[in-house]
Amino acid sequence: MSTGFTGRIAHTAARRPWLTITAWLIAMAAAIAAASGLDDVLTQDDSVQVATESGDATTLVDEHRPDEGPDTETIVVASADHEFGSPRFTEALAGIRAAIENLDGVGTVSAPTADAPVPVAADLHSALMSVDIEPGDDGTLVEHYLDTLESAAPAGFEVRTVGDASGEVVFDTLAEEGLIRGEAIGIGVALVILVVVFGALAAAGIPILVAIVSIITSIGATAVVGQAFELSFFVVNMITMMGLALGIDYSLVMVQRFREELAAGHEVRDAVTIAGSTANRAVFFSGLTVVISLMGLLLVPSTIMRSLGAGAIVVALMSVAAALTLLPAILALLGHRVNKGRVPTAHPGRESRAWTSIAHAVSRRPVTWAVSGFLLLAILAAPIASMRLAFPGLDSLPEDNDLRIAVDTLREDYGIGQGDTVVAIHDGASYTAEVENLVADMNRDPAFADAHVEYIGPDAIIDATSLYDSADPEASDAIVALRDTTIPQYLGDTDTVAYVGGAQAEQVDFTDIIMDSAPWVLLAVLGISFLLLMVSFRSVVVPVVAIVLNLLSTGAAFGMLVAVFQFGWGASLFGFPQVDGIAPWIPLLLFAVLFGLSMDYHVFLLSRIKEKHDSGAHTRESVAYGLAHTGSLITGAALIMVAVFAGFALSDLAEFAQMGFGLAAAVIIDATVVRSILVPAVMTMLGKHNWYLPGWLQWLPHVTIEAPSPAALASGSGTSASKDEREPVPSLT
Length: 733
Known about the structure:
The protein is of the alpha+beta class. It has 22 helices and 10 strands. Among the domains are: about 1-35 and about 200-345, Multidrug efflux transporter AcrB transmembrane fold; about 355-385 and about 540-700, Multidrug efflux transporter AcrB transmembrane domain (Multidrug efflux transporter AcrB transmembrane fold), CATH 1.20.1640.10. Helices cover about 60% and strands about 10% of the residues.
């Protein structure tokens, strides 16, 4: 049998296992050293690499205000029992001021006094302090400030701070907590599922080990990449989530095939080589499809999208590399001990009776199963029509989160919004009457407050506070109305050029960039995936079916995402926040990742189907064989991915929750409805037409995803695949 390049790699690793393992240990040590500087290259900012109106506004403002000075933090001091002006309240303000004003990096500290009682709430139960902070490069100053503020809070008072500097620390902390929670849940549940799938404790631990190695090396590689490119802080969560999912998934396939070959009587090294030439070849092509799908994210001119895409690509490559080299070395050393700690739940090499029954049931009534599956996906996808793209605001944070409580207090008691909106007007100083009328109109708009203008040279800069939560539909509507209606009404007949900027305007522009990039991402992902599957399976029908079914499963996942997060159906049951929209980057990210993972399972299933088909079996028999031999494996792998993604879905950050839930929902839909029902049903109906390749494409190279094992060759009839040319097309009734 021809082992192919993956078989040769596995054979080489099995011959020199300790050398292979040593090489990976060295790589891990280097990665750990590199990862120590990762925090210095991550950012919470989401910059874009194309011109936007909000970017033009920032540029014009920066020309006139190049030095923004220190970060300003607003401290909310509140008490239900004491009022401003009472001795206890005065003492509390003085104590807080004394505690923080001598900290290194802390500048001016101001607080209301009896002589200047501003700002103080109308009910006198809260007051605001202001602090200027020079953040340290590593954020330690802000953390010290937060710790000091917490310890300085007197009994009977609640002390909270709001500002960009403290906000970054809060979100970093929530992201880190979500990462730890996701890892713990994912690894714990994955281990249980692996024990059930493999029926052996030793075999169950191997995929988790390989996944951890993939994650560590990927984080180290990302830290190196971050020295040259700006990376979003989301990248670590992405690497961990995808690393656990793919690392375990790919190892699962290889270990399962290795145990099957051992059960068939092969020697350890031969079993490694056969598994390497069969399962690992499927792993290689599956990883290739995942990488191709994720490369579409690199087309989006956004830091966050390119960071997530790059991180997922790196960990996918590391997972494939570990499966192709490290895993064969480990299996060669373990040998038959891979079955130690056996529990009576699985039998290597034995065909699953349950999946055999499902395969035959689907193949007997393919039309019934296909129609049922399509209807179910259509129902699940229906809520897509109501999808709204919007970044979750602070209202999506847990109700007991200090940052959310402080912002609510500022908005309700002081009329201070969550962010600023700026209108930068080139040559605005030449039209002061029109500009002043624009300012007055903005102050009448319920979306803005405290609008005021500053004339700097020939230009005018209007600063205003945005009152609506960033996820509120009225927030983005206000920006659009300001740009399209209000500004033209007052400045349309002048020679000025006005740019609307600020946090909310940046979000509107980012959403537009995502929408503009989406067609190109879809075209790249679908086009390259079609070509790869066409070459791999020498068919134009197989890739068309795969793409259509993957789009349907992705649509169903989007529908569930909208139903849970926007409609709130079942959100409280799972502890998810209900928000007014889906984060703009989530659908495009989910599409790329889900398409890659869907192709992942598709390759695993089709490789077994084609293996049987190439041995001379009819399509119906080949489909049943493929499903019977991969059904439990795909389901087990899917459950592991669901566990990993669900762990991250429990994050307190709404965007992480949406990402984790969307991935988990899509994977379970794909592994059950699509891969276990629709693919077998549709392929059974198509019969020999599955393998149709036009004559003018016969020049395509013969590429085999999974070479047949000796056992498969022995069980075949020895005839070529041309036998299927005489196979009658099954009846559709």
